[in-house]
Amino acid sequence: MEQTELEQTARLVEMNRERYHEVQERVEQVLNVLGEHDVTATILETLSNKNHDSEMNMHVSIGAGVTLSCKHPGGGEGTAIIDLGSGIFGERTWSDAASVTRERMEELGSLLENLQSQSKQLETTISSLAKTFTQAAVAQHEEQESTPPLEQPVEQEAEPVQAEQEESTTTKPNRRRGGMFGNQLTLDD
How far apart are CA 15 and CA 33, in angstroms? Predict the structure, then answer.
């Protein structure tokens, strides 16, 4: 495998790792939403199974440590405002709201399975690409070690090369650098 193919394989490994981490983050997000839906559905189911003839007092958390006091006067099942989709909200009985929440949980479960499947596929792909990269890198390294370098007389070459370097530094005209930073030399000089 050539150097460019090795670099391309390394890039593919890195891209797939990034994608894997993104999928893992989404899995965590879906798990959090599923947990939230489960708590909500359980509360709604509990409320819908209560005796609706008597008055109920409850506290509803609205976030940031703030809780509202709520009273249900009795005489029937209470209602909740629920997002029906596309930003449309509707008033539903507690039992209807619980069933809608459970349906959403099933949809989220399907999404979770899909994401976990993608995660496993990415793990397999990453493993395969990493193995291919490692084998190719080892083979290339062994190939480079087995190829002997061209033998040249070291002592005879050292002096002319050094003389050429001295000539090139002395004959090279001093360029004046202009531009944004003035006449300062850069690392490129």
Answer: 27
